[in-house]
């Protein structure tokens, strides 16, 4: 009886471990699928925006990568910044903004410079303008209208810059591939087994089936012992 109870307890423990493993595996798969779906959505949004000649924006936030040295030393070439849509009339001297350039060498470009003159109304046309300047530039930019402003800089994304700089290298691309393989390692193994006909993973026995099997084995052993005793008595 003790051996039977011990076997049942061991099986219960093993069954709980398998169920826990399956739950954790399911959670992992949900998280990974959600991550990759989100990544695909971001990539699709970026691609569509680029095709339409726009900069992708999510909930009013936009990420830019600095491509000139006009804002050094505060912003270096390659820095990644986060900008947010804002009311241009609330801008103050010292704010760093991004705007659409419309004249000279800045025409058609996104420019990130510092506000050096708050919004003011021009008496000649009644429109509101403001003046910006790159920290490293010797002269101010041509005044821009408040409608040209696309956002106000919130912060620099240093970690994202390092990740970007790393993942665009060959080693970075190999790292991404390795992470994907590692994340879906079990699924890849199971797919390989199914592909080469090794069969699927066996489902664990039901606890009631195990108890019935153990009881049946105990009964068979008891019958066998009784038969052996009868033979000896004869």
The fraction of residues assigned to DSSP E strands is 15-25%
The backbone outline, from C-alpha atoms, is: rod-shaped
CATH topology of the domain at 62-167: Umud Fragment, subunit A
Content-based structural category: alpha+beta
User: Using only CA atoms, what is the Rg?
Assistant: 34 Å
Which oligomerization state do the chains in this entry correspond to? Answer: single chain
N- and C-termini, Cα separation: 29 Å
Rounded mean pLDDT is 77
Tell me, what is the CATH class of the domain at 62-167?
Mainly Beta
Descriptive account of the structure:
By secondary structure, this protein is of the alpha+beta class. Among the domains are: 1-56; 62-167, Umud Fragment, subunit A (Ribbon), CATH 2.10.109. The protein has five helices and seven strands. The protein has a seven-stranded antiparallel β-sheet with strand order 1-2-7-3-4-5-6, with helices on one face. A hairpin with a 6-residue loop joins strand 4 and strand 5. Helix 1 (2-51) runs antiparallel to helix 5 (207-233).
């Amino acid at each position: 009886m003790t051996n039977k109870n011990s076997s049942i307890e061991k099986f219960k423990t093993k069954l709980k471990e398998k169920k826990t493993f399956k739950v954790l595996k399911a959670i992992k798969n949900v998280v990974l699928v959600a991550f990759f779906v989100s990544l695909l959505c971001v990539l699709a949004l970026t691609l569509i925006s680029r095709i339409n000649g726009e900069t992708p924006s999510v909930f009013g936030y936009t990420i830019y990568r600095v491509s000139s040295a006009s804002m050094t030393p505060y912003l270096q070439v390659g820095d990644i910044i986060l900008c947010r849509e804002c009311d241009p009339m609330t801008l103050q001297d010292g704010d760093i903004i991004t705007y659409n350039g419309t004249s000279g060498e800045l025409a058609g470009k996104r420019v990130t410079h510092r506000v050096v003159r708050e919004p003011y109304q021009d008496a000649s046309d009644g429109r509101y303008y403001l003046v910006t300047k790159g920290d490293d530039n010797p002269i101010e930019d041509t005044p821009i209208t408040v409608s040209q402003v696309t956002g106000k800089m919130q912060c620099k994304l240093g970690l994202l810059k390092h990740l970007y700089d790393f993942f665009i290298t060959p080693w970075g691309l190999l790292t991404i591939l390795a992470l994907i393989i590692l994340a879906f390692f079990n699924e890849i193994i199971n797919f390989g087994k199914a592909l080469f006909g090794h069969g699927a993973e066996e489902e664990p026995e039901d606890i009631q089936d195990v108890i019935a099997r153990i009881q049946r084995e105990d009964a068979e052993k008891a019958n066998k012992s009784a038969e052996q005793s009868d033979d000896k008595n004869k």
